[in-house]
Amino acid sequence: MNSVRAANRRPRRVSRPRPVQQQQQQQQPPQQPPPQPPQQQPPQQQPPPPPQQQQQQPPPPPPPPPPLPQERNNAGERGGGGSGWE
Fold this sequence. Notes:
By secondary structure, the chain is mostly helical. It is 73% helix and 0% strand. Residues 1-86 are annotated as: Disordered.
C-alpha cells in the first residue's frame, strides 16, 4: 500500500509544483496575525467583573413571598364558598 500512496503523491507534486508554492505564501501572512491575539487577552479579564452584578440581582427576589399569604386567603374564601353559605 505504501508504494501505491507514494506513486499517487509523486504525480500530484510534479503536475503542479508551482501552485503549491503560491498557496504556501498565502498561508504565511495569516500566521503573522496570531501574535496579536495575546494583546486581546487582557481585555477579556475586564468582562469577569459583570458576574458580580448578577450576584446582586438575586437578593431582590425575596420580596415576592409576601403576596403568597393573600393568595392563601383568597383560596380559603373560594374553597369555603363564602357566597354558597349565604
